């Protein structure tokens, strides 16, 4: 059912999506996750079509600081303490909302050479500040995305969004995610697997 982590990392390195399930006792949802630097226009269109459409980009906190991406609010009241920053668009884009513009913004967020002035604020992409220590500190999709990128030897940034069901717009749970993965040829892993693998290194 779940893909071994080394196999998933190789797929991630090739620019493929992974479905990452978090703990059943937490959000109990599956996110589509792809490396930020490898997010094409086609990948963005697929992500928007099958997800909530709320596209986020987990980054290391230090990188968020370098890009002038402060927290969205001073007092974070989110149930799971998701660290949203101010939203951004690529300064070189047009409207910011097209799959082409959104993928450009994501790739810039995943580039080591980008600077703060490469982005306009607010925008249509929401960066997330991953906790220092990643999954050792917080077992969320934010930290999982950055962890996957690092394990794959890529820039530590990912592009993520929650999978939703076509018929009613509700979040996909594991059975839904398994069907979706089989239909689209996408590998599924869990955050628990990722934690165990990272601790074994």
How would you describe this structure to a colleague?
This protein has 201 residues and is α/β, with parallel strands linked by helices. It contains seven helices and seven strands. The strands form two sheets. Strands 6-2-1-7 form a four-stranded mixed beta sheet, with helices on both faces. Helix 2 crosses helix 4. The two termini are 23 Å apart. It is an enzyme of class 4 (lyase). It catalyses: D-ribulose 5-phosphate = (2S)-2-hydroxy-3-oxobutyl phosphate + formate + H(+). This is 3,4-dihydroxy-2-butanone 4-phosphate synthase.
Describe the structure concisely for a colleague.
It is an enzyme of class 4 (lyase). The protein has 201 residues and is of the alpha/beta class.
Calculate the mean pLDDT score and round it.
Answer: 95
Whole-angstrom Rg: 16 Å
Q: How many discrete domains?
A: 1
Strand order of the largest sheet: 6-2-1-7
CATH topology: DHBP synthase
**Name of the CATH homologous superfamily:** DHBP synthase
Helix-strand sequence: HEEHEHEHEHEHEH
Principal-axis shape equals: globular
CATH class: Alpha Beta
Helix proportion: 25-40%
- Would you identify the CATH architecture? Alpha-Beta Complex
Number of helices: 7
Backbone structural class: alpha/beta
Q: What are the segments in which pLDDT stays under 50 over at least 5 consecutive residues? A: none
Number of strand segments: 7
Q: How would you sum up the major sheet?
A: 4 strands, mixed
Tell me the span between the first and last alpha carbons.
23 Å
Q: Strand-residue fraction?
A: 15-25%
């Amino acid at each position: 059912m779940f893909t071994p982590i080394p196999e998933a990392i190789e797929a991630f390195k090739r620019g493929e999506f992974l479905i990452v399930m978090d703990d059943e006792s937490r959000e109990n949802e599956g996110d589509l996750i792809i490396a930020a630097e490898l997010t094409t226009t086609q990948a963005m269109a697929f992500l928007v079509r099958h997800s909530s459409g709320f596209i986020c980009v987990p980054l290391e906190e230090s990188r968020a600081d370098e890009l002038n991406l402060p927290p969205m609010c001073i007092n974070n009241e989110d149930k799971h303490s998701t660290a949203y920053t101010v939203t951004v668009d690529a300064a070189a884009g047009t409207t910011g909302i097209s799959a082409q513009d959104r993928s450009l913004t994501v790739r810039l967020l995943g580039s080591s050479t980008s600077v703060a002035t490469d982005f306009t604020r607010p925008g249509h992409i929401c960066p997330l500040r991953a906790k220092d220590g990643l999954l050792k500190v917080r077992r969320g999709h934010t930290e999982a995305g950055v962890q996957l990128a690092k394990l794959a030897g890529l820039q530590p940034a990912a592009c993520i969004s929650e999978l939703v069901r076509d018929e009613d717009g509700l979040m996909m749970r594991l059975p839904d995610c398994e069907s979706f993965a089989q239909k689209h040829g996408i590998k599924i892993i869990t955050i628990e697997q990722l934690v165990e693998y990272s601790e074994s290194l």
